[in-house]
Amino acid sequence: MQQQKVQEAEQRKVEQKQKQILQSRTLVAQAVAEKGSSVVTTTSMLGDEDEFEGAGIDSNTVPGDNDDMEIQQQERDAWEVRELIRILHEADIAEEKRKEILEIETRRKMTDGELYD
């Protein structure tokens, strides 16, 4: 009886972790879908700066697969959060660039009188 309860608790724990994995991946997929293809084009506009530099976090590595499952999952979740932050940051930069280009085009179409009014 006691062993059965322990097994059920472990099963619920595994199911909960799988649910969290699915939710985090869905969140990343939604963020990518919302921002569209503009995210892909901003990679070339970014400098070499790393917003995670000095924080003890390496944003360019996917967690290794030689640790136990719990640690591995925690690393994966942390990596997914960093990726989501990076994707959103790139999308924001692309949106700012797009707005800047639109403003420049609008100003170029204005006459001198409109510019000074």
Folded structure, characterized:
The structure is a single chain. The protein is mostly helical and 117 residues long. Helices cover 72% and strands 0% of the residues. The protein has 4 helices and no strands. The chain has helices at 2-35, 38-41, 69-109, 112-116. It is rod-shaped and about 85 Å long. It starts with a helix and ends with a helix.
Which helices and strands appear, and what pairs or packs with what?
Blueprint: H1 2-35, H2 38-41, H3 69-109, H4 112-116
Helix pairs in contact: 1-3
Instruction: Please identify the structural class as seen in this structure.
Output: mainly alpha
Range of strand content: under 5%
Bin the helical content: over 70%
Rg calculated over all Cα atoms:
23 Å
Oligomer: single chain
Summarize the structure.
The protein is 72% helix and 0% strand. With 117 residues, the chain is an all-alpha fold.
Jot down its keywords.
single chain; mainly alpha; 4 helices; rod-shaped
